[in-house]
Amino acid sequence: MKDWVLKYQTLIKGEFTSKVPHTEEDLSFWQDQLFYCFLFYCFPVSMIAVIPGVFMAIKDGYSIIAIVDLSCLFGLILVTFISRVTLRKRKLAIICIFYVLAIFLINSLGYIGPGIFYLFGITILIALILPVNYACWSILANFLILAIFACIIELKLFNSALNQEYTIGAWIAFGSNLIFLSIVFVALIHQIFKRLQLTINNKTLLHERYKNIFDSNPLPMWLFDAETLKFLDVNAAAVRHYGYTRNEFLLMTIADIRSISDVSEVKDIVKANCISGQYYTGNFQHIKKNGDRIDVKIESNLMEFDNRPARLVVATDITDQLKSVRDILSAQLKVIDSESNLRAIFENAVEGFVLLDRKGDIKTFNSKAKAYIKFNKILAEFENGKSIFEFVEQSRYEYFRELLDKAYVGEVIEYDRKYRASDRSAFWIHYTITPVYEQGVVNGCCITGRDITSGRIYLQKIEEQNRTLREISWMQSHVVRAPVARIIGLSAILHNDPDDKDIKVIANYLNQSAEELDEVIKNITEKISPEPHG
């Protein structure tokens, strides 16, 4: 039985929909829908009236009534199933059929017959399936029909059944009530349709606003079925950003723009949100048509679309933003690593460091600062934020202030200072005060202190050795050389005696040795001291 009903419905709907303009914004669309429903139910339900009516008419000898009933039923069938007839003509044909039936039944059966009901029902049907002015014309037509029947009653024409049942007064009273009811119901139906049209207009306006917001939104947006995950609508930004056409989107599901590993998670999230109905936001990775992977922030909310649960989604591409965050984190890690390396170098340097700001307050210092930077006989731990002058002895305050002022104008100051340890041993610290620049402007200075005691001792030893060598050189040039000079003189005297050959030979050897010794002393003296000696 169900299959037969579906076939019948398909037949009526198939013939009907080709004649109906498919736009819900127009009130006539809904009037056409009502006429469709009328056609769908009228033919099978009419059997309730036709079969017993025809049977009783034949039984009681009213053959003409049976013929008219069957003719009207045949006309109804033709109007319902012949698709060549336009929808407006079919409406007018139905109205004409029922008017013929109503007039005939009123004339044949009088007041007690169904003709009066048909006459009233025709006006209501016209008000439902046609514009209200047609219903007004129908009321006027009813008035004329009732007036004609009044004349028939008054003049006793056509041997009408009304002649025996009504007087002119009773018929006028009956007819005026019928017209009254027709006007009231038509007015009510008109108000209902007027409010319906207003509702349709408001709905259309809201829909247009939604479409404008949806389509003109610069962010990708789409609507998808929360059960099948199919795309129901996408805006232009989504088409531009993802590379798919709108028709391609509508053939896809949201799983098609995700990696396979994310699909199960997405389905679970959508299912949970359908139950909770809550607003959802989260970060995911999507795949464009060209295969590019992008990071997006998803914001979605549950709504109803065509009586089905759907979710409206806004997708914000945060790929560049996350890349910037990762770059910043990487840079921060590098800075931290660099700072760690600098701190390690700073702490393990052989010098003591104290960094000051422009006011002379301590910004930072290393562990060697206390040992190698001494401004006071009393050892004190440096503290960040304290003034360096708190660690300078009073007698050197002004002198130290002058040194800092020179550094603050860009001068580099270096000096050595000697100290005494607790065991009275001496040690030396070499100080350097260097200006610190920021964007080309001196905004502080750095004081470094380095222990140069070993270097000082080494220099002292070298100076002592130099003094010893100078003494040796003096002795060679003055003390040793004098006897050599005397030997050379004696050799010359011996050499002047020509009579003794042996003495002459001895004098020659003695003179040669003295000259060689004198030459050696000269060389040693020249190497020890570049100054000439006589």
UniProtKB/TrEMBL annotation:
It comes from the Bacteria. Gene3D superfamilies: PAS domain. PANTHER family: BIOFILM ARCHITECTURE MAINTENANCE PROTEIN MBAA, DIGUANYLATE CYCLASE DGCP. The chain crosses the membrane at residues 34-58, 64-85, 92-110, 116-136, 168-189. Keywords: Membrane, Transmembrane, Transmembrane helix. This is PAS domain S-box protein. InterPro entries: Biofilm_reg_signaling, HisK_dim/P_sf, MASE11, PAC, PAS, PAS-like_dom_sf. The keyword Metal-binding does not apply. The lineage of its organism: Bacteria, Pseudomonadati, Bacteroidota, Sphingobacteriia, Sphingobacteriales. The keyword Transmembrane helix applies.
